Amino acid sequence: MTFSATFGGFPVGLALGYTSSALPQLRDSPLHVTDQQGSLVGSMVPLGALLAAPLAGSAMQALGRRSALVLLSLPAVLGWLLVTYAGSLTVLLLGRLLTGAAVGWTTVVAPTYVAEVTTARLRGPSGAVFELQLNMGVLLSYVVGKYADWRLLAALSGAVSALWLLLVTLSCRSPLWLAQRGRLAEARATLRWLRGELADVESELAALGTGRATGKAALSELRRQEYRLPLALTLLVVIMQQGCGINIITFYAADIFEEAGGAMDSSTAAIYSGLTKVFTTALGVAAVHSRGRKPLLAASSVITGASLVVLGVFFRLKDTGQDVSAIEWLPLASVVVFLLGFGIGFGPITYLYMGEILPPDVKNLASGIAIFFNWGTSFLTTLTFEPLEDAISPAGTFWMYACLCLIGAVILQLTLVETRGKTLEQIQQHFDSGKDVKPSDASSQDSRGSDGALKG
User: Fold this and answer.
1) Separation CA 99–CA 53 (nearest Å)
2) I want to staple 179 with a disulfide (CB 3.0 to 4.6 A). Which of 119, 187, 195, 342 is the partner?
């Protein structure tokens, strides 16, 4: 069930990586896309995501998590069809906007679904798989884009979205959603199917908070103390994830390497960066199971910031006319380190943390708000990247994002609440009472099966 939901990261990655491969071709195509229009092509995905994200919370509460996943596959397929057969810039932008809407919807619903069908012991690595599949989608986009036409790449992306539609139709409903709607017999049967016949599903069913958490909440309720802090921490993490500049590296990888020069073909360098993202995120999936969310996020912010400082130094030397032939490898090395830092923290943890920390009563509303800010930040960084390069130079742009990362590392270390090893109920109790629950408490409960987990 986790795989069926997290496979949605694959079409998300294809949408994010598409412009890196397609933009150089679009500039020479009959559409004659200019640099300014290229910024629009890139920014349509985050724009569509931020417009769709607030609707996703309401949809997954009214229809259920599984039905919401099925529904979001439709604009993804339609959007890729429009891109494939685009005869004008307007049609191309509309197609990108629809695929972006599917991206935003996915990043709200999929992490929520994963957090609700897995146990506390497995929730970390299971949730992190979403980012791993996202990066595999980015890599596939880079590889296919090097050898195939931009229309063929769009057609392949649409086919992957259609495959995901098939997978999610075969998944089960969220037991939490069923319990919230009073469908206890279905929730019990789903838990028994997920956990196994010998699991203690009755205690997990009780821990879901039946009769307390309806999943419905008004915007005014977010001002309550027990909701304010988890929402604020979620917003901090999701804004930092995009504020570090990850989508600049993803969307414009080929352009960055082309501007840097060097002997390696820019599209080949982009493929190496995509391979790095997959490898480092795989490390992140392992790390999130054995290390805390808080130290990994802080380390991620420091590493990404430091690598952007070095990348900015290279472009500064190049722009001032100094000979950089001896360090032509530095841009690729800087991007690889950046992706390493992102892969151990912001990549696998951001959406997982959102699914963990938001209370069930407000999760549908608050997750939509969080993803709105997440993709709103992405939209601004993507749209302003090329204008910023023109205004303050590439070096100044990378240094600006480096400052955001390094300042963010301090804020994350001082404010985040650790959630590793805790059940969703224990995380909620922490914000209700203001007292921390030790992870060992959660682990001991998990081993006894009191939250319905399989033992061993």
Assistant:
1) 13
2) 187
Any idea where the domains of the chain sit in the sequence? 2-176+217-448
SS (H, E, C) 135-159: HHHHHHHHHHHHHCCHHHHHHHHHH
Task: Specify the CATH number for 2-176+217-448; select among 3.30.70.1350, 3.30.700.30, 1.10.10.60, 1.20.1250.20.
Answer: 1.20.1250.20
Alpha carbon 413 to its chain centroid, in Å, reads 21
Rounded to 10 degrees, the C-alpha dihedral 165/166/168/170 comes to 160
Of the pLDDT bands very low, low, confident and very high (cuts 50, 70, 90), residue 410 is: very high
Overall average pLDDT of the 43-68 stretch: 84
Which pLDDT does position 154 carry in this prediction? 94
* Nearest alpha carbon to residue 252 among 156, 342, 149, 331: 331
How far is Cα 456 from Cα 9, in angstroms, rounded to an integer? 29
pTM greater than 0.90 = no
Q: How far is CA 371 from the centre of its chain?
A: 9
Please say if the pLDDT value at position 215 is more than 80.
no
Q: How far apart are CA 400 and CA 408, in angstroms?
A: 12
